[in-house]
Amino acid sequence: GTGPLDTSKVAPLAHTTAALLPYDTAKIGRLTADSSSVLVGQRDIRPLFESLDQKGVYVTAIIDACYSEHATRTGFKLLPSRASSLTLDYSAGSFGTGSHAKDAYPYRNIITLSASAANQTAAELGNEAALRQFPTLDGEFHGAFSDVMLRALSTGSLPDYGPLDKNADGALTTQELYNGITRYMQIKGYEQTPKLQPTLSTQSKGRDLREQRLFFAADAPSPATPPAANSAAVSAGEDNAMELPVLKVKVSGDSTLQSRIGALAGIEINATSPDIMIDAGPAAYRMHIDGELIGQLASEDAVLELLRRRAALDQVLHKANHRPQATLALELQTEQSANYVTLGDFVKILMKSDQSGYPLVVDLFGNGDIFRLYPNRSAPSKRLDAHTTQQVFEVEVTEPLGMDSVYLFLLKEPVPQHILQTVWDVPSQHQAVFTSLLEWLNQPDSVLGASKLPVFIQAGKTELCRSQRHLNQARQHYEQALTLGAAAPESIDLLRESIAACGLFQNYFQLGYNLLAQQQLEDAAEPALQAVQLAQNSENKTLGWWLLGRIKLERGQLPEAKSAFDAAFAAVTPGQAPPPELLEDATSLEQALLQRGTVSADFIGSVLNASRAVGVA
Question: Hey, what domains does the chain have and what are their CATH numbers?
């Protein structure tokens, strides 16, 4: 898929303008938006949906595509694995332009479940290697989102999540389905955030679309009710019998820390399939998930407390998700739609429940500190009425960088003031304060419902990149450079102008690539390195490291090329095939190292394994 927030094929599009492309589009070659083979949102999709909406037809659109959040407003479909041979004509006006202000949701009776946010790709389980690592329900190739939907719709439940009908009223709602698939994809580690439209803030026309029943729900559900007061003993028994999740951790470079982590309750050392990876450095411990930064911590004790807090809160969440409970919605509103925010951004968090209760919202920072978001000074503790949207917090994003985990707990009774007053800003060294909060949350039958929202905080954008005008200039120069081609010297000047307007991954990558094509190897290395540093997802990290390795290979710097190719292979999303360019260049490097007699068995093995995964060897 592609769209205005696509970092690999950026186009001068309005913020919600894109196109649906058929499965076999890649065979067609170059396309424009006027082609009959392209379904343009404004021209083809939205009029159809508006016609159905005006007739009172209820529609649930389920879309598994990259950048698909706004696909029913203006959408597209292109499988990432089939995108390489397709060239889209992004000339001015090809896909239309419009206001950059975000549109209101246009439908009364249509709801959309999409695989990813407007600036995210969607994982594709499209080869045998992917199926071996992530078996699909029916053994067929699917997008990851499609596989999760098949599991949910086939059984009404999901592994490691339990029944989707959390309030046990006999009717599965769209919100309950969305909560289940989102949490399941978090557990599986997919790097995409499913999206539900309308959002809590854009739903303003009539009834609550998010709480409508799905087509296979019971005809006569009973009203949702909280668990009875005399069910505490039953709940306690269920908790004792329940198998709680274990946080799996991999530690590199510090055997003492590894031993201390292995002794913590609810945590195990697992180097094969870790949830969290910790790299011990000379000045700090870097915690990450497949390259995505969680946090950097200065001491072993801070690392241990962060892990303890995360494991404990996840277990409270797990217990709430495995027995009848309230159905909650916890939503982050950002400029870029996905759960990635930038220092200086202003964000809002909204919440909603189908049952009344007392909400407690806490944020576990990437440095191990806990901050209470709700109740707060501007919104004192009060009961959240059922079916009412409440703003949790509005704030400018600040440090620390890394991953915040926002937890919403809907409680039967409010947290006592003597505990609440201490849980405002809880540094990692204040272990007793967190323990008292945890004991309260673990009381039998105290939590009516729970939800978790991961938020990735990135380094600040320049003021130029905050300006839509400069961003559009960067995109325009980028597209002009692509039109000229990598061999045209004029493309270099255009790409440098695009970087001056707004330095984005694709601008630096394309500049490095074009300099490589023109054999300006010394100049090509710096933009390639900048592209690596700006890459925010596995695909771009792989491409950035490949480009840097290719430049080093061309310059005869074989050890540096090997290091870059190793990093490129390591960045490939599990289950996905490495790019053919990476395999080809790694093979060339292997042959050059063999001639020098310096190739390692490990490197040969990595190339062969990657080649077999895509049928090269």
Answer: 19-211 (no CATH), 242-458 (2.60.40.2550), 463-613 (1.25.40.10)
